[in-house]
Amino acid sequence: AQTVTQSQPEMSVQEAETVTLSCTYDTSENNYYLFWYKQPPSRQMILVIRQEAYKQQNATENRFSVNFQKAAKSFSLKISDSQLGDTAMYFCAFMKQNFGNEKLTFGTGTRLTIIP
Amino acid sequence: GAGVSQTPSNKVTEKGKYVELRCDPISGHTALYWYRQSLGQGPEFLIYFQGTGAADDSGLPNDRFFAVRPEGSVSTLKIQRTERGDSAVYLCASSLRPSGRVPQANEQFFGPGTRLTVL
Q1: C or N terminus of chain B, fewer CB within 10 Å?
Q2: What are the tens digits of pLDDT across the range B67-90?
């Protein structure tokens, strides 16, 4: 079974600054995917960024980037130039590579607050 | 286009009652997932449908929980004899059909959830 650990229950940062959210995971799988999801107060989970484990290059989506360390089983999210709209819960998630069932295993989340 | 919708948005019930939670996936998405998110936790997998069939129900906590998807579109999560511990947000997600030949990790699109409160 896979486990995902987010050790930072809450974080806050000033607007326009950079913040890094941590995530570690445990798995015996060699092929998998990792995700960061954002959950605003509306409760709707929104995909922020994804990383394929077989890719060495770290994924980047505009202000969002990851630091994927496969050997260390670490997958952190960096948000640059943070904006008020980034305030939300952030969840790290794991998906085993599968030809069918693509269920996600989530961490417990980090509540991020951007301070004006 | 329309996203995943879930009804009701909130449901308050008494211990021992029966409830049904509904999920309308994105049109054309054949894969459908139910997750449960307890207070202060991340979502936990409950059940996965591919088309009309429940391909993986290993996350259902006990036999009081049951889900159906009779026509391969709308799904209903049913909870019998509700208990206070069932209080949570129930999330539904849908995605395109996995190819079955090439692993893809299709993006899951989530609904806004149903907040269930059992008094």
Answers
A1: N
A2: 999 998 999 999 999 999 999 999
